[in-house]
Amino acid sequence: MANDIMLWVIYDISDDKTRNRVAKTCKDKGLYRVQKSAFLGTLNRNQLDELKIICDDLIDSEADSVYIFPMCEDDFKKVRLLGQAFDKKLVSAEVLAKFF
């Protein structure tokens, strides 16, 4: 687990089919959905590289955006969530406890 990287994946993809494929890829990699277009979790370096390659292959680079924000644990602890932060229909208390 020492080589795992905490990260956020946030995307803006106009095509429903492509957006669903990116979401499925994030879920398949073990990330947790926290908003309709935002995932949070930990991956190892190989999984992160695979995620980047798959997302890059799926999206239209002229129209879509995928942001992958790796964070070290110290920086992750400094994250402040304001307002609703997470979609409560998507996030369980277990997921929140895991990360905060």
Report on the structure:
Helix 1 packs antiparallel against helix 2 (45-58). It is built from four helices and four strands; from the N terminus they run E-H-E-E-H-E-H-H. The two termini are 18 Å apart. The radius of gyration is 13 Å and the shape is globular. The longest helix is centred in the middle third of the chain and has 14 residues, at 45-58. 21% of the residues are buried. It has a four-stranded antiparallel beta sheet with strand order 2-3-1-4. The protein has helices spanning 16-28, 45-58, 73-77, 93-99, and strands spanning 5-12, 32-35, 38-43, 65-71.
Q: Could you give the distance between the termini?
A: 18 Å
Low-confidence stretches: none
User: Strands across the major sheet, in which order?
Assistant: 2-3-1-4
The class by helix and strand makeup works out as alpha+beta
Major sheet details: 4 strands, antiparallel
| Average pLDDT, all residues | 89
- The run of helices and strands is EHEEHEHH
How much of the polypeptide forms β-strand, as a percent range?
25-35%
Q: What is the helix fraction of residues, given as a range?
A: 25-40%
Global outline:
globular
According to DSSP, the number of beta strands is 4
Count, helices: 4
Protein traits:
4-stranded antiparallel beta sheet; single chain; alpha+beta; 4 helices; 100 residues
Describe, in short, the structure shown:
This protein is of the alpha+beta class. 39% of the residues lie in helices and 25% in strands. The radius of gyration is 13 Å and the shape is globular.
